[in-house]
Amino acid sequence: MEPARNAPTLADLDALPAGIKGEIIEGVLYTMPWPRALHLHVASEITSDLSCSLDFDHQGLDSWWILFAPDIELPGTLEISPAVAGWRRARMPALSDEAAITVVPDWVCEILSPTTREHDLLVKKPYYARIGVAHHWIADLFERTLTAYRLDAGEWRTLGVYRHERDARIEPFTNVALDVGSWWE
Q1: pLDDT value for 5
Q2: What phi, psi does 157 have (nearest 5°)?
Q3: What does R_g of the chain's alpha carbons equal in angstroms?
Q4: CA–CA gap between residue 44 and residue 181 (Å, rounded)
Q5: 85-104: b or e for each residue (b if 16 or more CB lie within 10 Å)?
Q6: Cβ proximity of 65 and 105 under 8 Å
């Protein structure tokens, strides 16, 4: 992962070569190869498990938007794209094709792989704390673990580490039984 040397713009993201993705976080352009198959598989499994379980009641208090690799534009950051992110529908009632997402997610999940590990842990994790993301999950492909965190007074508090659980209830989705073990298969 290489930070850019000049003040980056959205045009810099558009100009990236095929197979390279980028994020502009707090004025720095970070580039990395597009995720490989296992990374995409785990992100898809998490997205699917949560979307199927949380999308049943659009009017309910625990109704969420769960999005795979969303592009988010926040103050001080031109674009960030978590592997998976979620918003309570009470805070973001609708999705738009006309405008970028400008609401801080309530939950993000990053998938650690050899090409993203350093960026996700050293850049994005503290950034998510600074902007007030309430819950953060890290799925580690090498360790085959999911670590869940809650933001507490600006610091990440570890809630648990999951590996083979077939009925895990993990904040902020404690009403959903997740088969974490199946994500690594």
Answers
A1: 59
A2: -105, 125
A3: 16
A4: 14
A5: bbbbbeebeeeeeeeebeeb
A6: no
Q: Whole-structure pTM over 0.85, yes or no?
A: yes
51 token code pair: 């979307």
Domains of the chain, earliest start first: 36-183 (3.90.1570.10)
Q: Which residues of the chain have pLDDT under 50?
A: 4
- 84 phi, psi to nearest 5 deg: -145, 145
Q: Which two tokens stand for residue 26?
A: 């707090």
CA-based angle 82:86:89, to the nearest 5?
A: 150
Residue 70, token pair as written in the block = 């969303």
Report residue 150 as tokens. Answer: 């809650």
2 CB-contact burial (10 Å; exposed 0-12 / middle 13-18 / buried 19+): exposed
